[in-house]
Amino acid sequence: MQDHPLLAAARQVLEQNWNGRFTKPAPSLYPHQWNWDAGFIALGNAHHNMDRAMAELRHLFRGQWSNGMLPQIVFGDDPQARYFPGPDFWQTEKAEHAPQGIQTSGISMPPVHGFVLWELYEIAEDKEAARAFLQEMYPKVIALHRYFYDYRDPEEEGLAYIRHPWEGGTDNSPIWDAALARMDTSQLDIPPYERKDLQNPKAAAHRPTQADYDRYVYLVDLFRKNAYDDARIYEQCPFLIQDPLFNGILCWSNEALIKIGDLLGEDISEPMQWHELTIWSMNDKLWDEERGLYNAYDLRQQELIPVYTSSGLMPLCGEVPTQEQAEAMLLTLESGHFGGKRKDIRLCPTYSLQAEDVDFKKYWRGPVWINLNWLLYRGLLRYDMDKVAERVKQDSLALLSEQGFYEYFDPRKEAEGEIGCGTDSFSWSAALCVEWLMR
Ligand code: GLC
To answer: 363 CA distance to ligand 1 centroid (A)?
Structure first.
C-alpha cells in the first residue's frame, strides 16, 4: 500500500493545511484547531512525521482548562481567519478555569486522545521518545477523562453527557432533533450573530439550517451567561444527551489509558474503574436489543432517543458490546438501514437509508464520513469481522480516490450531483487515508 497513488496526495493535503503550529481541518471553512480533528490528524502524520504528530497534540493541550476540560476549538491568531463563533462570542475569559493567553471555545469534544496516544506509541520507531511523550501527555488525558466523570456524569453512571451538538462532533445529527425542537426559538432570547460558514458556495447548501444555528447560539449564550460553570449549566441547559459515539470513544480511550498507565508504572485503578462502569452502563442503559444498536439518552426528558444513526454502531470501537451483541450490530449494518448488503451503496451512511428525512448530501444526516468509517473499521476488526471491515475500508478509499479528500460523501454510487460534499482538502479525510494505507 505504501506506493499507493493516494498516499502522496493525502500527505500533500496535510502539509498544505499545516500552519507551522497546528493543522487546520480545512483551508478556509475551518481555520483554527479542532479537538478530535487534531487526534485523527496526528494519527495520519505519525506514519511519516512523528514530531509533527506530537506538536499537533501539544498545541491542542495548550488550550486545556484547569478543570481538565479540553476545548472543541483552540483558536489560532491569524487575523484573516474568519470563523463564527470566534473568541469574542465565546467570551471564555469569563470562565474561572480557562487558560490565560490562549483563546478557546467553551465546550469539549469526543475524547479520542487516549487511543490516539496509544496508536502513536505503537507506530513509533523511536520507542524511547514515544514513551517520553506518553509520560508528558498521560496526566493531561487523565485530567480530561476525570473532567467528564466529575462534571458530566451527575448520576455517577459512568456515562458522560454532552450539552451542545458541537460537543458530539456530529453537529446536525438526527439524534439531536427532538431535544433541539423542544427549544422554542420564538420564546428564546437569541443574541445577534452572523454566520461565516455559508461563504463556501459548495458547502453552503448542505450546512445546518438557520433554526439549528439559532439553537446552537442560544446554548453558547447560556454557557457564557453562566460563566461556564458546569453545575449551573447542568441545572439550566435544555440539551443534555448521553451519546453512544461519544461514550464509545471514551471507552476506547479509557482502555488505552490503562495500557499507557501500566507501561509507565502508574496506578491505573482510576481508569480501570471508569472503564468498567462505562461499559456496564452503556450495555445496561443504551443498548437496544430489538434494533441491534446503541441509543442515545436524553437526560432532560429521561428517555431514549431511538433513531437509526451509525453513531449507535460506534461502541464497537471501544469493545463495548459482547460478541453476541456485535453480531446483532453486524446484522443492523447489513440491513436496509445501512445498506451493508447493497452493491449500490458505499458504507457507511450516517443515518438510516430508510428514514423519511434522510438527506444524502446534508452533513451528518446521511452522508459517509471518513472518521466514522475508520472507527467502525477498527471496531469490526475487534470482533473478527474482517470481511465487512475490509469493505468499509475499500469503500472509503474508493470515495477518496474518485472524489478527492472531501469532508463527507453521498453514499449512493449512482447519485445525481456531487458525491464529494462540503469542503475539499479536508484534513482528517487525508490523515485517515494515510493511516489506512500505512498500516
Ligand atoms: C464540523 C464537524 C466537526 C469537526 C469540525 C472541524 O463542525 O461537524 O465534527 O470537528 O467541523 O472539522
So the answer is: 10
